[in-house]
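User: Structure tokens for both sequences below?

Assistant:
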Amino acid sequence: MKKTGILFGVFLLILSIPHERRARACSCMEPPSVSVAQSEADAVFLGMIIDIADMDIRREVTVDVHEAWKGIKTKTIKIYTGHNSGDCGLPIEIGESYLFYANDWSERSDKGFLTSTICTRTATEANAREDLVELGVGKKEFTQAATSSSATSHSPWFAPTILGSIALLFLLSWFLRKKRLTKGKG
């Protein structure tokens, strides 16, 4: 019984150890036409990057929206992308204006978590001239409230670590209780 408890404790400890993220490489197909990209995107907008926050597995980009063709209601929004081209992240800079083709991250339950990658037609305003001509005039008036995503910067192992810690505390209290009962009998 003692060996089983120890093995169980070791198993829980291993589960609670942070694991390395899997390496991912970005491989894109040729971007679709402007009309197809617009219809497939959840949001299409032109805006200037005013802040970039590096998070654990992505970057949170704050954008001041100048013009929108689809999916944007507020003047300031947050969009998420990878850190570099290896994880399909956009090569973006504060102060630059970009035409974004963004999508809701369908793996999350909260809506409004927009992402964009190098696999979309997203480009600097200077490199998106043809797209802007084809898109025509977009919406230029927005509400001032910033869209706040409920995305967090928790590491991918946040939940397993918490659960593992709780399990270890439970196991430790069980061992201490068992030791106290054994002492009381002796």
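Moving on to the next sequence.
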Amino acid sequence: MNRTMFLISAVLTAFVLVVIGGVAGQLSLTMVAEPVPTEIVVESTPVTVPAIDPTAEALIREREAAYQASLAEANQRLAEANQRLVIAQQELSAQAAASAPAAPPAPVVAAT
């Protein structure tokens, strides 16, 4: 009996010591000194944009015009394709409506 009580007290003591150590560790982590804010001075300097070479600017404008033309052509083709799709869907709906019977045929009953 004394041995059992001694073992139980040893286990409880170890458990309490581990819990106290964990709590102390967590408290030491949360009590870290907060950093002192430092003043940051930002000096604004004017930004100068270098002038674009006229040849490069003309090339950029030419490429932009070609891009816009390609984009307009692609949009036109897309609109035409969508229009053809709508027409095809309408024709298909009309064909399906024309070929569908108005009502199913009535069953024929044989005389007995």
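User: Anything stand out in the second?

Assistant: The mean pLDDT is 85.
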